[in-house]
């Protein structure tokens, strides 16, 4: 069975199980339904803020409603990928809160924040880390909120090792460039704040998406969804170039 066919079959299984309280994480062709759940949710989170609709937020909400079905029989890699997804979800809400002033959307984002905070599948024993959902300007002289190194992935098949190595290298280069741009954005925002101004909404949203996209890329690495890793890295490259034009490197 091809990888594409397996992913389609697993996606159908995920949609069928949404809202159910499954006792065992189902697998299709060796792909866990939790992995496909993360991949499908990443497709929603990766959209440009200007393209997000209320229907998209509704789909996001439904994926969170069904999350409990994939919290059994988790591996260490599942927990790590879910932690990255949780941080990416919070970054998504922050990005949208920075971008939109639509009252209906802001209300929906508030409900999503509550659901994300209650996400049950990321920490063993329920010891969750604090999350921020309101926009936070990039601080000056602080480390960026995303990892500068890609995650370790154990037992990568021989056929995938070259692809994985290329993606690791690309992640590292992209993260270094994004970190420099992120710090420049913080410095510019501090200068603007002294003049009672701030970065425009488009630039602020692009900066906020750095953490979101690197988190999605790292999570997709752990799930060995190489095509999605590339998509997320290409997206962060575009956002970095957009911000760099405004704030410099």
**What proportion of the residues form beta strands (DSSP E)?**
under 5%
- In terms of quaternary structure, the protein is single chain
The largest β sheet comes out as: 2 strands, antiparallel
Average pLDDT rating: 83
Helix percent reads 55-70%
User: Going across the major beta sheet, what is the strand order?
Assistant: 1-2
SSE layout:
Elements: H1 3-17, E1 27-28, E2 31-32, H2 33-45, H3 54-65, H4 76-99, H5 103-117, H6 161-193, H7 201-222, H8 226-247
Helix pairs in contact: 1-2, 2-3, 2-4, 2-7, 3-5, 4-5, 4-7, 6-7, 6-8, 7-8
Structure description:
The chain is mainly alpha-helical and 249 residues long. Helix content is 63%, strand content 2%. A two-stranded antiparallel sheet has the order 1-2. It is globular. The termini are far apart.
